[in-house]
Amino acid sequence: MPTTAYPRDILIVGAGLGGLAAGIALKTDGHKVTIIDSAPEFAEAGAGIRVPPNSSRLLLRWGIDLEKMKKSASRRYHFIRWENGSTIVKLPFENIVESHGAPYYLVHRADLHTGFLEAAKRAGVVIHTNKRVIEYDFDAPSVKTLQGEVWKADLVIGADGIKSVARPLLTGQPDVPRDTGDVAYRILIPGKDLLADPDLESLITDPCTTSWCGPDAHLVGYPIRDGELYNIVVCATSYNETTDEVWVVKGDNRELCERFAKWEPRVQKLCRLTRDFMKWRLCDLPILSRWVHPSGKACLLGDSCHPMLPYLAQGAAQAVEDAAVLRQCLAAQKDLGVALKQYESIRLPRSSLVQEKTREHQYILHIEDGEEQKARDVRMALNSQENPVFWGYDDRRNWLFSHDAEVLNEDGANWKPQGHAVKAH
Fold first, then answer.
1. For the whole model, what pTM was predicted?
2. What's the Cα-to-Cα distance from 129 to each of 15, 37, 94, 286, rounded to whole Å?
3. How is the chain split among helix, strand and coil, in percent rounded to 5?
4. How far apart are CA 317 and CA 393, in angstroms?
5. What is the pLDDT of residue 2?
6. Mean pLDDT within 143-161
7. What mean pLDDT is predicted for residues 21-45?
8. What are the chain's domains?
C-alpha cells in the first residue's frame, strides 16, 4: 500500500461504514486520522447488508478481515412472482470472483461495522464517541461539539449520513431529504426456524438472494452469519407510519401478516415467523451540485452526499468507493483543494448515476399486475439493454461490480458509462 508524500491531519465526522472506510484508507496512507461520532457507544444494531465485489475488493485490500467474519455467499439472484412463487429470472452468481475479481458476501451490518472498527484501530485511527458536532468552520477548518470542544485539522470530512449537519452548510442549499413514499421493514429470523420447515429450509441450505416482486411492495431475503439468521428487507408503500421528525418506528407480526396475507405461502410463513422489527422511512436526496467546500478544506462522503435507497444494495459500497478515490487523490496532489476537486469530479458522476438507477428500481419492482408487469417480466430475462434491472445486463453489471475505485484514469473515464448523462440539481 502506498504512503502519501503529502501527510495531512484529517478529521472525519461520523463513524459509520463510510467514515470508518475513509479512516482506514487514509490512515494506511500515512495521514493522521481522527474520527468523532455522536453515539455514546457502538452497539450491535441493524440487519443484513450485501458486500458486492466493487467494495469487497477494497476492504480485503485494506486489511478488513472478511474471511473470519460469519457470512454467506449468494449463489444466484432469484426474482420471483409475489402470488405464486414462480420464477421471473435467475441470475447466476456462482462465478462472481472469476467474473469480477472479488467475492459477493452477505453479512450482518453489525459484524461488518465491528470489522471496520477493528481494522481502523489496528491502523492507528483515533476514534472518539459521544461527540455531537453542532458547528462547522470550513475555512479554518474546524468543528465544534455540543460539549464546547473545538476540533481542528487540515481537512474535515463530513460522513454524518443522510441527516448530515455538514451538508447544507457546505452546499449552501436548502436541505430537505425526499420522502420516497416507501418504508423498509428490516427483519431477522433465526435460521433454525426456517430449517424446521421443508418449504423454507432451502432458503438457508441453498443460499441465494430471493426477491419477491409484487404490487406496491417487494421482499428481499438472504441468509447471514453462516445461516444462523435469515435477513429480510421489505420495501413497501408507506401507510404513514413515520413522520418528518420520527423516521424509525416499531412494527409487529400482526400487521406484517395482514399486509402479505395474499402473497405466496412461503412469504406468509416468513411473516408468521417474524418477531418485532423496525420500520425505516426511505428517503434520498436530489443530486448535489457539489461535495467540496469552496475553501478547499472540507468535503462530504457517503450518505451525507449520495444516500442510496436499498433497491440496488450499493449504499455502503458507494461510500467505500468514495474513500478509495479520496485516498488516491490526496496521495497524488500536493494542493489539497485540487485533490478534493479531483475527488468530486471522479466520484459525483458515478455515484449519482447509481443513485438515480436505485430510485428507478423502486418503481420497476413494485409494478401492479397487468400488461406492464408482464412486459417487465419478459424484459427481466433478457441479457440486453432492455433489461430494466440495472445489473441484469452483463455490460452494466461489469461496470458496477468489476469497478476498482483505486484505479484512476487521467480523464476520469473510469466512471463514464456509455449513453448516460447525470445532471446536478
1. 0.93
2. 9, 5, 40, 30
3. 35, 25, 40
4. 20
5. 55
6. 97
7. 91
8. 9-70+107-176+286-363+394-415 (3.50.50.60), 178-284 (3.30.9.30)
